[in-house]
Amino acid sequence: MSIHRIILLGLLFTFTVALPYSFGQVVQGRVMSLDAQGNMEDLVGASVYFRPIKKGTLTDIKGAFSLDVQGKTGWMLFSSTGFISDSIFVDKNQFLHVHLKPANKELSEVRVIAAPGNHDDVATLHTEILTMKTLAKAACCNLSESFETNASVSVSFADAVTGAKQIQLLGLSGTYVQTNVENIPSIRGLKTTYGLNYLPGTWIKSIDLAKGQSSVVNGYESITGGINVELAKPDTSEKYFLNVYTNSQGRFEINQQGAHKFNSRLSTGLFTHYSKQAARLDGNKDGFMDLPLFDLWNVLNRWKYATDRWMVQWGASYLYENRLAGQSNFDANNSNRFLVYGFGSKTSRFETFAKIARLYPDKPYQGLGLILNTAQHQNDSYFAFKNYVGREQSMYANLIYQSIFDNTNHSWKAGASFLYDSYQERYIDSSFVRTELVPGAFFEYTWTVPNHLTMVLGNRIDWHNQFGAQWVPRWHLKWDAAEDWIVRLSAGKGWRRVNPLAENMGFLANGRRLVLLGDLNPLEKAWNFGATLTKNFQIGTRKGSFVLDAFRTDFEKQWLVDMENGGEIRMYSNPGVSFANSWQAELNYSPVKRLELKAAYRYQDVQADYLTVQGTLSRLPKAYLNKDRVLVNLAYATPYEKWKYDVTWQWNGSRRIPNGSLTHVHDGVSPSLTAPAFSTVYAQVTRQFKKWEMYVGAENLFNFTQSNPIMSAKDPFSRGFDATMVWGPIVGRMMYTGMRYKIQ
């Protein structure tokens, strides 16, 4: 048995005996909910009823209650107009914290967020919440641009040609982050390369970012964290919303959203998006466009039907993108286009979904849900004379049942999932075809000692038609150690099937030779261990929070993309050790009224054993990853948020980059180079009017760019051509302006 399994099994049996309590006569507690902006609110006048003695009371102006239960045990019921009723089995003298869910909202965990900072104080997992208010602090044209004011996630270009963006979390790429849209796996498969660009920011209602292992209910692919994006709902969205955006680099975007409620049960929403990059930019004068030209169309139609016992959502979406890049004088319609380096990509995707929930008004702790999703994805690309064709058909189903053991302090979820993926890929003269079938089952138990401790034990097993049975255990602990002190611990395993070409599309924009080595079984497995300490504080009337976290990821198997030898891209399963360590400290504070401050420092140590040309191992830090990062964000609003000001400063430390030269190889490995540290600044000003608002802003305000993102740019058909040596901003200062208009 490996050391990871021994550690995890030890953790699973920790805290298995509850602390004894004496049961008195009076039960006290507090009933709360959240307002529309996500702030904590006390529920005044909520009904509290103790069934055994048929006695009740109402909550006071602070949401508090006190009820003499005469030493009896039994069910205590909580209800309030406009909220879903809840119940707790009372058999101990304990202070009850009750969070009622709005009746017109989807089934989701009610969150109490420490302000400022948007860290979830109730969730068992260490979770950050990016609300609409947070997203509006920047241009936020799509999902990849939603993390500019977030300290945990880094976003960068994957290469200097295609315009594809990638995220990093806990020192590892976004492929290790399970990215869902409303609990449906989204950024995966052939969508990995450009998927972050495809989801418009105005469609997003909120983003939940959880570090470390996520719940087994959501699947097995989470290794370093989980991102769940909640879109605007048809029953709560504005009747009409318009967003128009343009910038100094020749980009234009328009988003329209409309919602209509036919009655109290049925509603629909139509979301449309169009964006275009029209200008050919070459700020560094290397002969290549700094940004790809593109036309992107995206449309979503969704429906919702809700009663006291049923909630059904369904819809469909379609997107089409035509992307063009390469040398500035490249013309795709020119018959001599092979004399000029060009890149082209055409993508179409059609997707359908359905979410069905069976509700039990008399038993709000009980529920049955079914999630269904189908997708068809097509991509045709070329990198000069190298062609790529990809086709994907996928289907996903997840059946979830939740209930309790005895009382709501002992809850559980169980279910089954099924994933079908069919891939047909062709690169130059090689074809790759495969079909994946992955049925799975899971069980998750949650034990709660109110106001003290929450522990979640999860297990799932999945049967992959190529890799056999795969076991995924996960454990989470949240301990309210003292007033305003929260400790979280987590441990668990994740695994994933690699898509070598689709996940590394940007690496094809070079003249290197692609080499596949050794065991080509592209399966990755990793254990992740994490600890988080949260301290909420108040100085006078000003609130704040301090969050310190540390995570460790150990790979059993990892698929490496090796750029360490000039002239080659080598892909192979890591024959040695691979790990990632991440530490972060974040302070959120409101020093004066309407001014919010966020300051964070992050350190990352990521290393792996690479294979030299002589067959020996060489342990190296991960390339292109800066160990140190500092982020400072200041946000200020005038009364009634008539004016809003926001500025973000990011400092990124130096990082190792491989030497792409075809010469100067030493001991089988090209000597590494070091990229310098650099800073970027983002700023935005927003003016709020009655039904609309206008915003202006700037990105990369001090115009820092990497001077040579493309090697051998003057000879793009040579073996030394390489557009993947990107460590900093490719484009310079960008000014933008936009307008948002709403009809409630």
UniProtKB/TrEMBL annotation:
Gene3D superfamilies: TonB-dependent receptor, beta-barrel domain, TonB-dependent receptor, plug domain. The keyword Lipoprotein does not apply. It comes from the Bacteria. The keyword NAD does not apply. Pfam families: CarbopepD_reg_2 (PF13715), Plug (PF07715). Signal peptide: none annotated. Keywords: Cell outer membrane, Membrane, Receptor. It is found in: Cell outer membrane. Residues 127-225 form the TonB-dependent receptor plug domain. This is TonB-dependent receptor. It comes from Aquirufa beregesia.
